[in-house]
Amino acid sequence: MSAGPRPEPNVTQAVPFFWVSSLASSLRYYVDGLGFQMTLKWIHDGKLRWCWLQLGGAALMLQEFWTDGPQANVPKGKLGEGVSVCFICRDALAIYREVKSRGVPIPKAPFVGNGMWVTSLVDPDGYQLYFESRTDAPEETKLPEPDG
C-alpha cells in the first residue's frame, strides 16, 4: 500500500442531458420557474438548439428534438418516463417555497423519505426532479399545507 499523494479524480461531474419537445417551454420551466441560469448555448441556423443550465453546484443540459431532416430524432414513446434526477440541497423546503411562489405546479407536498425532505417536481416533458435535504424528522412526515 502506498501512502503517497492521490491523483486528482478524472471524472468530476455527472450532468443529466434531457431531450425536450420544446426548448422554449423547458426554459420557462427551468429558468423562470426553478431559477436555473443558462451558462452555455449552441445556436444553429439562428435557432437555440442546446443549452447548459446551472443552479448552484448542479447542472443539466437541454436539447430540443429535431423534427425534420436527416437529424430527425423525435421518439415514439412518452418522454421522461422512468427518468429522475435527485438534486441534493441544503434546504429542500426552501426550494419548495421558492418554486411555489413562482407558480410552478407541485404535484404533492414535500415529505420525508430516507431521512431527507423531498420536494418532488415534474418538468414539461415528464422528467421527475427531486430536491432533497437531510432531516431528523420522522419518515413519511408531510409538510403541512396552510389553510386556504
Q: In angstroms, what separates the terminal alpha carbons?
A: 64 Å
Helix content: 10-25%
What Rg do the Cα atoms give? Answer: 18 Å
CATH C-level category:
Alpha Beta
Order of strands across the widest beta sheet? 1-4-3-2
Q: Determine the strand fraction and express it as a percent band.
A: 25-35%
Shape, please?
globular
Name the CATH superfamily classification: 2,3-Dihydroxybiphenyl 1,2-Dioxygenase, domain 1
The chain-level mean pLDDT equals 91
- How many domain modules? 1
Corresponding CATH architecture = Roll
Secondary-structure content class: alpha/beta
Task: Using the coordinates shown, work out and report the CATH topology.
Answer: 2,3-Dihydroxybiphenyl 1,2-Dioxygenase, domain 1
User: Strand count, sense and closure of the main sheet?
Assistant: 4 strands, mixed
Number of strands: 8
What is the succession of H and E elements? EHEEEEHEEE
Quick take:
This protein is of the alpha/beta class and 148 residues long. Helix content is 14%, strand content 34%. The protein has one domain: 2,3-Dihydroxybiphenyl 1,2-Dioxygenase, domain 1 (Roll).
Protein architecture, described:
The chain is globular and about 55 Å long. It has a single domain (17-67, 80-134), classed as 2,3-Dihydroxybiphenyl 1,2-Dioxygenase, domain 1, CATH 3.10.180. It contains two helices and eight strands; from the N terminus they run βαββββαβββ. It is α/β, with parallel strands linked by helices and 148 residues long. A four-stranded mixed beta sheet has the order 1-4-3-2, with helices on one face.
